[in-house]
Design goal:
Helix content is 30%, strand content 15%. It is α+β, with helices and mostly antiparallel strands. The strands form three sheets. A seven-stranded antiparallel β-sheet has the order 3-2-1-12-11-10-9, with helices on both faces. The protein has a three-stranded antiparallel β-sheet with strand order 4-8-5. Helix 3 crosses helix 7. The chain is globular and about 65 Å long.
């Protein structure tokens, strides 16, 4: 079926339309889809339910999603780059220089030699995740555990621990606990339930989570950690992306540094376009993005001056019967690029 895009405002609705079968079936309770360009033109589309159990709550545009690992790029990475820009340290500073008490019982502990760059690009030996929340309920004790644990060494993997450590760096240099730090406009932690999209019925907490961070470790660390904890609406996420596209959040130099390739799949914080990423192959080579476990995703095509987000609550009501949305992410991204190019050229596209 051929469709003509008559205005930028129609992009998101047409791009997300093929994905709505899973919303109608209940496989994905809610979808918020949107796109923004460098001028700030925005297109959004909202579908489904913010909550299915214990009762249905229709999705509203202003509702906040648990962004999960988008916290890594929309908060932690940006704040680290800001500190670097201020001259607090550089990318190759070792953690022992920034957190002198890390691995304090062994001056040669491998964790002390890890650099900021390695954490940002997930090039450390640290594990992907660990059940830190099971070791107690005192925030400072859990932080001490992370700093002093003799972590097993392995091949580099995408690791939450990397970003927990970067969160500690931010706390030390800002002299402020992360949950007390000023957040970007429109972003919150531990927001009121009635403002939020629900995630999982958590077996540990014994309730449907709505306004509580889904990630157990972030919850145990006070609601915001370097790896997870932010909540925001689609509109706020897109405005953050716009701030990166027009360099109003960081200097252009800092942004260019942040988006420099560190290896085949990573830049600093962000994933870069590669053969296996969840944003298709129609993006320009100079594209970055990130996803979150709860079902969130944001991608930025730097060459086209275009950013798009797909926010879902795929883990509601349970992560143990999760819906894979990799194909949906790819399809939405490819649709956005195709429709955008059609709109820009004035042609009719399929």
């Amino acid at each position: 079926m051929k469709q003509e895009v008559s205005s930028f405002a129609g992009l998101a609705g047409q791009a997300v339309a093929p994905l709505l079968e899973k919303v109608a079936s209940g496989e994905i309770p809610a979808i918020a889809a949107g796109v923004i360009n460098t001028k700030g033109d925005i297109s959004t589309s909202y579908h489904g339910f913010a909550q299915l159990v214990p009762e249905q709550v229709p999705l509203r545009p202003e509702y906040l999603f648990d962004l999960a690992s988008l916290t890594k790029v929309l908060f932690t990475t940006i704040e680290i780059m800001r500190l670097i820009e201020e001259g607090a340290f550089d990318l190759d500073a070792q953690l022992a220089e920034l957190i002198p008490d890390i691995g304090q019982y062994d001056a040669q502990a491998p964790i002390r030699k890890i650099t900021v760059r390695q954490c940002l690009s997930h090039q450390t030996f640290l594990p992907a995740v660990a059940p830190i929340y099971t070791y107690g309920d005192d925030v400072e004790t859990l932080k001490a555990y992370i700093l002093q644990n003799e972590w097993p060494q392995g091949q580099p993997v995408y690791s939450d621990i990397n970003f927990m450590l970067l969160g500690f760096v931010i706390e030390r240099f800002r002299n402020c606990k992360l949950p007390q730090m000023p957040l970007p406009e429109g972003f919150e932690i531990n927001p009121p339930a009635e403002k939020c999209v629900a995630t999982e019925h958590c077996k540990w907490r014994g309730r449907v989570l709505r306004g509580e961070v889904h990630d157990e470790n972030a919850y145990a660390l006070g609601g915001l950690s370097g790896h997870a904890g932010l909540f925001a609406s689609l509109g706020s996420v897109l405005k953050m992306a716009h701030g990166l596209l027009n360099a109003s959040i960081l200097s252009q130099k800092a942004i260019d540094t942040m988006w420099q390739a560190q290896n085949e799949t990573r830049c600093l914080g962000w994933e870069r376009r590669n053969l296996n990423w969840q944003s298709g192959q129609d993006c320009s080579t100079n594209s970055v993005g990130h996803t979150g476990f709860t079902g969130t995703g944001l991608w930025i095509d730097i060459e086209r001056g275009l950013a798009w987000g797909l926010l879902t609550n795929r883990v509601h009501p349970s992560r143990f019967d999760p819906v894979s949305i990799k194909n949906e992410r790819i399809q939405f991204s490819d649709n956005i690029i195709s429709l955008f190019e059609g709109f820009r050229s004035g042609k009719v596209h399929v």
